[in-house]
Design brief:
The chain is of the alpha+beta class and 307 residues long. Helix content is 23%, strand content 22%. A hairpin with a 2-residue loop joins strand 10 and strand 11. Helix 1 crosses helix 6, helix 3 packs across helix 6 and helix 5 packs across helix 6.
């Protein structure tokens, strides 16, 4: 599933093409891609056609395109979640339809002319919807890419991500240490910190020399802050590399793959030498997926078992 770096790469590529553009037409080819939009495809098309988009915003793994409000109208946005294989692609009107095209937005941009935003999704786990925007509790911007203190209703429960200027470091450390769970489970909890998935959790824990099964309860403050610093570092480096692509399911808006997969130290490197100590990286079962780690560099303290 695309994580923060991948979604941010899509957002930054999409932003200049949608800011100020008017939605000239909407075509829904697969109603299942609108399953979060309970009013259905006809409502989605009618409410969005003719409306001006004001930008592209992201929090964690969620992306939204705010719609310019009309007088006495509650603000709303096009909310996108890529799921396992969703892609948002920029195309010219003359381009042939993409494979697995599910929703097509024809745009009229004031500077670029006619454009197409294509939502393609092989496995149809991703979705688009029109979601109301509500004020953020702290009065800070709802996400990266827009100073407005507004966030979609269905994203409001998602925590801020570590690259968000409004992210509360002290609050995160306190909440992390106050939980009785494992470190990796905590990193994947989007209500604690958003945008971190399996890949970047493994990479961050390896960089911080912390075992994924180590207990959060009583974790030293220094270790918690070191982990947060490594999460930020890993996410920032992945952004520079355009995200992580293992197959054609994740691409940017132009269809190009990211190459952070070439710099991974732990994830997907089972049996290969640890870049730090030379011992083999191992793969351990974790929930319905796997964790990759170095048992020598990331030792599990005897007292770290969770209750």
């Amino acid at each position: 599933m695309p994580e923060l770096p991948e979604v941010e790469v899509v957002r930054s590529g999409l932003e200049p093409a949608v800011r100020g553009a008017v939605v000239a037409a909407v075509e829904v080819l697969e109603p299942r891609s609108l399953r979060r939009h309970e009013a259905g495809a006809a409502d989605f098309e009618a409410r969005l056609t003719g409306r001006r988009l004001t930008g592209a915003v992201r929090r964690g793994k969620y992306l939204w395109l705010p719609v310019e409000p009309r007088s006495h109208e509650a603000p709303f946005a096009v909310l996108a979640h890529l799921g396992m294989s969703g892609q948002i692609l920029l195309r010219t009107p003359e381009a042939p339809p993409d494979r697995q095209l599910r929703v097509r937005l024809a745009l009229d941009h004031p500077g670029w002319g006619d454009l197409v935003v294509a939502f393609a999704d092989q496995r149809i786990f991703g979705s688009l919807s029109l979601d109301p925007l509500e004020p953020t509790p702290d009065g800070q911007p709802g996400g990266h890419g827009d100073p407005a203190p507004l966030v979609p209703l269905h994203v409001a429960h998602i925590a801020r991500d570590p690259l968000d200027p409004a992210f509360d470091d002290d609050g995160f450390v306190a909440r992390l240490r106050g939980r009785r769970t494992e470190l990796k489970r905590a990193l994947l909890d989007q209500t604690l910190v958003s945008g971190v998935g399996n890949i970047y959790a493994d990479e961050s824990l390896w960089a911080a020399r912390l075992h994924p099964a180590r207990s959060t309860a009583g974790l030293p403050v220094r270790a918690a802050r070191r982990l947060l610093a490594e999460v930020r570092s890993v996410l920032e480096r992945a952004l520079v590399d355009g995200g992580t692509s293992f197959d054609a399911q994740y691409v940017n808006v132009n269809g190009a793959s990211g190459y952070f997969s070439q710099r991974l130290n732990a994830y997907g490197r089972e049996g290969k030498p640890c870049p730090r100590c030379g011992r083999p990286i191992v793969r351990e079962a974790f929930m319905n997926r796997s964790s990759h780690l170095c048992r020598h560099c990331q030792r599990l303290p005897p007292s770290s078992a969770t209750a």
